[in-house]
Design brief:
The protein is an alpha+beta fold. Helix content is about 55%, strand content about 10%. The protein is globular.
């Protein structure tokens, strides 16, 4: 049985990997549009891990019982975003069974444990197994602090025999969960408090909005330090920053095809960026704001830019957008 399942998994793994990627891409787009700050990764279980799990678990129906052949991990900024992300998954994908939510376990309040939040779904896309059934995908939802603890403890304790890890070491690792809970609560408190200080948070909110919208075009990881430097200048070229996010979203809806073309030709996957290192701002979320300002108010943008940032960067963006300065 193991040999048969092993051969089948080797054969189908490329399709499973596609299913995981399509599911992750679907959730990235939905999370971006819902303004949920998160990082999403995916994987198809490697063949060795699959076989090892089958052997150790003594499954009677290993193909059906190994439910994490395709996996997606969603890491949100703080614990206040766990439920919104869970709701988004349940609303946008077909859920199989009940979510595995350790936060709701009654009687475990006095224990220090990692609160799992896993959802089994039908994978996005049209990939299907040899028997014609769509693939399932296990989605893990964590906070950044939970993810840090999980990755650290995984390295130290994964698949180790209980007796091989000293009890004081195991206890130390689990004590860290108390700090993780406090960290998550303080991050949430800080994020929510900043909403009440518009003068301090305006640039941050504008950048957050651009990052959410940028994720609907690309999965590229941008440079936050560069974004902060550029957005501090861009906010000076926007007459009404409070109302601007709505204007930016409308601009993107109206010009999405033009934006997709610009990113294809000059963005993070283009030859201009990969081979020549030019048009660096086209690989950044603030590029959306720059393109909108070049369309609506390029003279104001130019006037604010010229004394604070290299003009070559704005010239490149104007070239990518097909306008003259």
């Amino acid at each position: 049985m193991i040999d048969e399942v092993f051969s089948r998994y080797q054969r189908e793994r490329p399709r499973i990997e596609i299913a995981a990627k399509l599911t992750a891409a679907h959730l990235r787009r939905r999370a971006a549009r819902s303004r949920i700050n998160c990082e999403i990764s995916c994987r198809a279980k490697d063949v060795g891990s699959f076989v090892t799990k089958v052997q150790h678990k003594n499954y009677t129906d290993p193909w059906a019982q190994v439910t994490d052949k395709a996996g997606v991990r969603v890491v949100v900024q703080h614990e206040g975003l766990l439920n919104p992300m869970l709701d988004l998954v349940q609303e946008s994908l077909t859920v199989v069974g009940e979510p595995e939510d350790d936060r709701l376990v009654v009687g475990a309040e006095d224990r220090l444990q990692y609160p799992r939040l896993h959802v089994q779904v039908i994978a996005s896309g049209d990939q299907a197994s040899d028997d014609g059934k769509p693939y399932e995908c296990e989605i893990q939802i964590r906070t950044e602090a939970m993810d840090l603890w999980a990755r650290m403890s995984h390295k130290l304790m994964y698949k180790a025999e209980a007796s091989a890890v000293p009890s004081n070491v195991r206890r130390s690792l689990y004590r860290l969960i108390a700090l993780i809970e406090l960290y998550d609560l303080e991050v949430r408190r800080g994020v929510e408090a900043m909403v009440h200080y518009p003068d301090v948070a305006q640039s941050n909110r504008l950048l957050d909005e651009a990052e959410h919208l940028f994720r609907t075009f690309t999965e590229h990881r941008s440079r936050r330090d560069l974004s902060e430097e550029v957005v501090d200048v861009l906010v000076k070229a926007i007459p009404d920053p409070v109302a601007y996010p709505e204007r930016l979203e409308k601009f993107i809806d109206e010009r999405r095809e033009d934006l997709e073309r610009a990113y294809k030709d000059y963005g993070p996957e283009s030859d201009h960026f990969l081979r020549h290192g030019r048009y660096i701002l086209a690989s950044q979320p603030e590029s959306l704001i720059i393109f909108e300002r070049l369309t609506s108010s390029k003279l104001l943008l130019h006037g604010r830019w010229v004394d604070e940032l290299p003009m070559s960067m704005l010239d490149d963006m104007a070239d990518a957008w097909g306008v003259s300065l």
